[in-house]
Write a structure and sequence with these properties.
By secondary structure, the protein is mainly α. The chain has one domain. 82% of the residues lie in helices and 0% in strands. The protein contains 5 helices and no strands. The longest helix has 39 residues. The protein is elongated and about 60 Å long.
Length: 154
């Protein structure tokens, strides 16, 4: 019983770390792509302005984007875990792909069923790729951290 609780705790910690990493990377890409669009219009943006914008977005998007990202990754990682039981040699790749597909499914859900896309940067190919890449990095972090924690407890 205790070992099951420890394993569950390890997975929860791994998930939260992975979700936060994915969120931070996604928001940083989001900010920098939007600022790049402004520089394309001829607006000069200093490095300190880029840092200020990134800091602002990281804090201000926690109420909307962080929970959405966590739900998408929770569903994706849960489904991946089922598949990985049958293909344990593909564990890391499975979670990376799950993170990418989870974010893609999130974007497609909002655009298809709700007729809107609250993650504006995903309207471009680069923006969509950046957000899916952030989900993939989150999947990699989950695979590595959870494996390390589970191995540590063994």
């Amino acid at each position: 019983m205790v070992s099951k609780l420890i394993r569950l705790g390890s997975r929860l910690i791994s998930f939260l770390v992975a979700g936060l990493v994915a969120y931070v990377i996604a928001v940083l890409f989001y900010t920098q792509i939007n600022l790049s669009n402004l520089t394309d219009l001829g607006i000069d943006i200093s490095f300190s302005d880029r840092l200020a914008a990134a800091s602002h977005d990281l804090l201000s998007m926690t109420g909307m984007y962080l929970p959405i990202m966590l739900v998408a990754l929770l569903v994706a990682f849960s489904l991946a875990a089922i598949v990985i039981r049958f293909l344990p040699n593909l564990r890391t790749l499975g979670f990376v792909l799950a993170g990418m597909v989870g974010v893609l499914a999130l974007v497609l859900f909002f655009s298809s069923f709700l007729g809107t896309n609250p993650i504006a940067v995903t309207r471009s190919s680069l923006g969509l790729l950046s957000q899916c890449g952030a989900g993939g990095i989150g999947g990699l972090v989950y695979a590595l951290v959870s494996q390390r924690l589970l191995n540590y407890q063994s």
